[in-house]
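User: What would this chain look like folded?
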Amino acid sequence: MSSKPKSNVFHASGKRKRAVARATIAPGKGAVRINHVSLDHFSNEIARARIREPLVLAGDADKLDIIVRVEGGGLTSQADAVRLAIGRALVLMNPGLKSTLLDYDRQLLVADIRRKESAKPNSHGQARAKVQKSYR
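Assistant: Here's the prediction, encoded as structure tokens.
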């Protein structure tokens, strides 16, 4: 029996707070699309710059088509989730890139596990602030 041929398409996911991004990387013309929208029209300039970081470090981003589906969270969380998913997919495609990405920013490959702290009783919807107690 022959073994399955190696695919040129790579899938990876990334999470940040409530945002979840799933990235697909394939050889192509350099198009980056997030939720069916070009990267140039996604969110604000700071978020776009953060998403471009793994592509700039990889160097050959103009030869890859990247399609990302992201949902949940806010704009910054979505940008960080997309950045993580793209970084992980690039490492799947080229394992030698792992040390470069880790040296630049660990958040390109390792998820930030911090989450919102849940609200407590008697705190008016806050996580830690309590109603002031009076002894007189």
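The first helix runs from residue 45 to 58. If you want, I can go into more detail on any region.
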